[in-house]
Design a protein that fits this description.
There is one protein chain. This protein is mainly beta and about 130 residues long. The strands form two sheets. Strands 2, 4, 5, 6, 9, 10 and 11 form a seven-stranded mixed sheet that branches. The chain contains no helices and eleven strands.
Length: about 130
């Protein structure tokens, strides 16, 4: 399994921006699809964005499309989530996830991810 550590969360006003980072413990992850999920208080964890392992295709939830951008820097073993035009409803704990080593196809399904970070809190005030 890949160990993942998220950072970059915090408190921001509506309309502001944050960039989340997810650092992986091994370069083996560079061939694996990566995803971001979030869980708001009292709600189930939901898909936010994903990026494939090789061709770097990206996928987004409709609720964040056009505002969030997922990217990766394999030289740094890091995946990013740039979040712009933040809204109060974006408030949640954000989790980074990785599919098994060598599985490059991204997924919106959380059960298809085998490694998870501990999460980072994002709070958007109105």
């Amino acid at each position: 399994q890949v160990q993942l550590v998220e950072s970059g969360g915090g408190l921001v006003q509506a309309g502001g921006s944050l960039r989340l980072s997810c650092a992986a413990s091994t370069r083996a992850f560079e061939k694996s699809a990566m995803g971001w999920f979030r869980q708001a208080p009292g709600k189930e964890r939901e898909f936010v964005a994903a990026i494939s392992g090789i061709v770097l295709s990206t996928y987004y939830a409709d609720s964040v499309k056009g505002r969030f951008t997922i990217s990766r820097d394999n030289a740094k073993n890091t995946v990013y989530l740039q979040m712009n035009s933040l809204r109060p409803e974006d408030t949640a704990v954000y989790f980074c996830a990785a599919r098994s080593v060598g599985v490059a196809t991204p997924s919106r399904r959380e059960y298809e991810y085998t490694s998870w970070g501990q999460g980072t809190q994002v709070t958007v005030s109105s």
